[in-house]
Amino acid sequence: MTAPGARTDEEAEDLDVEEVLALVKENPGAPPGGPVPAHAPHHGHQGTSHRPAEHRHRATPWPEARTTAERAARSGSRGARRAPVSVPLDAALGLTLAAPLTALTDLPSFDTSAMDGWAVAGPGPWSVRAEGALAGHAEQEPLTDGEAVRIATGARVPPDTTAVLRTEHGRSDDKDRLHATGEVVHGQDIRPRGQECRTGDQLLPVGTLVTPAVIGLAAAAGYDALTAVPRPRVDVLVLGDELLTEGLPHDGLIRDALGPMLPPWLRALGAEVTAVRRIGDDAEALHRAVTTSDADVLVTTGGTAAGPVDHVHPTLRRIGAELLVDGVKVRPGHPMLLARISERRFLVGLPGNPLAAVSGLLTLAEPLLRVLAARPAPDPYALPLRDGVHGHPYDTRLVPVVLRGDEAVPLHYNGPAMLRGIAAADALAVVPPGGARPGRETELLDLPWAAGGIGVCFT
Ligand SMILES: Nc1nc2c(c(=O)[nH]1)N[C@H]1C(S)=C(S)[C@@H](COP(=O)(O)OP(=O)(O)OC[C@H]3O[C@@H](n4cnc5c(N)ncnc54)[C@H](O)[C@@H]3O)O[C@H]1N2
Ligand code: MOO
């Protein structure tokens, strides 16, 4: 039973963000307490008040939406993942190993000098051979006791070498005999064959993300190509008649922010972007684009809500797609959706409001693409919020933050239609329903260019 004056869940879901903020301020008992950053107010249609009640109740809680997206990518006999392929080293950055990296050679593959100096045999002084040993050159004759040869770092040490004497630790007398200026330890500055690995040793397991260092190790270990999970192919379909691809906004037309933003972001999430198509608000063109694409994942932008030209739901119904997520209890971005359009193909519907699209990207596309690309899940982490953040009563909020020391600082300009906050952000804070007080530990979603910065996002 509902207490007099209290709002029911359904009524509260009907609140738009401005109303929710007002409600929190009016009620001193409601969290969060303390000062609240002056978030820019949200304008336009924020709420679900225009949507039919049965639609609202299908909205999935935010954490569950993410696990649904992961599960969808895993379902089926071998999951929806593409079969492993052999990829040349220079194209493998950001992929995941589908076979262990096993050494094809000993490393080093021969006994090597670790320093520039002389290879020596037995105790000094030594007579020095006329011809030196350079890296990459033919093997030298064995040394005999009392003999030395000039040697470069990385050169093969001649057979029967007992030590390498660094240039700075040797001097020649007037008869051109070489003396050590200090103690010479047997084996010093020789890298023995197989010191790092033997042929057949496993260097890295299946599932390793291919970083620049992995590419370097693979090359050193004899590989020309790697067996890897290919990037899932993604077509981006940008909906909306109001969008310009260049110049200044005019006459009610605005610049398309998502067409330029999504491809590099999707690549950072492990995808290969195979096409970016501008569809307009044309149901037939959307149907054609969806049914003729052979991408693994279609990402649409806009057209997810219930307006007269919102064609995503009708198109999914027309092709008999299975809606796995139809609305998420998250602000911004709640009309986002995930559908299975055939056994191994998916459609992620991102809302048109740009920050709402980012929210959909990180809530649905990130887990889906991560599993399809066989990337490891990032370790969840949390930091205290420096300032309190108002929450929605029932929905999670994603709020751009910068990381300063051990704190996350919420940014202004976090309205659904704004990119100003996220463009300056290091991460998105996951603010639970009800909000967060200053100092509260809050889960953070890293942005791909902020996390470790290995640059896979820019490939
Ligand atoms: N009756 C309802 N109206 C709205 C609801 C609702 O539940 N019922 N939800 C609101 C929320 S929340 C959001 S978010 C938006 C989502 O709308 P759509 O996904 O249908 O997107 P559009 O209507 O096409 O566009 C919304 C907004 O975003 C601008 N936009 C679209 N594409 C781009 C782009 N590529 N670059 C920059 N800006 C873009 C577009 O011009 C609109 O201003 O719906 C609310 N309404
Ligand atoms: O306002 Mo809507 O929550 O998705 O951006």
TrEMBL record:
Pfam families, per the entry: MoCF_biosynth (PF00994), MoeA_C (PF03454), MoeA_N (PF03453)
Gene Ontology MF annotations: metal ion binding; molybdopterin molybdotransferase activity
Pathways per UniProt: Cofactor biosynthesis; molybdopterin biosynthesis
Signal sequence interval, chain numbering: none
Record-level GO cellular component terms: cytosol
Cofactors required: Mg(2+)
Biased composition (Acidic residues): 10-19
EC number: 2.10.1.1
InterPro entries named in the record: MoaB/Mog-like_dom_sf, MoaB/Mog_dom, MoeA-like, MoeA_C_domain_IV, MoeA_C_domain_IV_sf, MoeA_linker/N, MoeA_linker/N_sf
Residues of the MoaB/Mog domain: 235-371
Function: Catalyzes the insertion of molybdate into adenylated molybdopterin with the concomitant release of AMP.
Protein name in the entry: Molybdopterin molybdenumtransferase
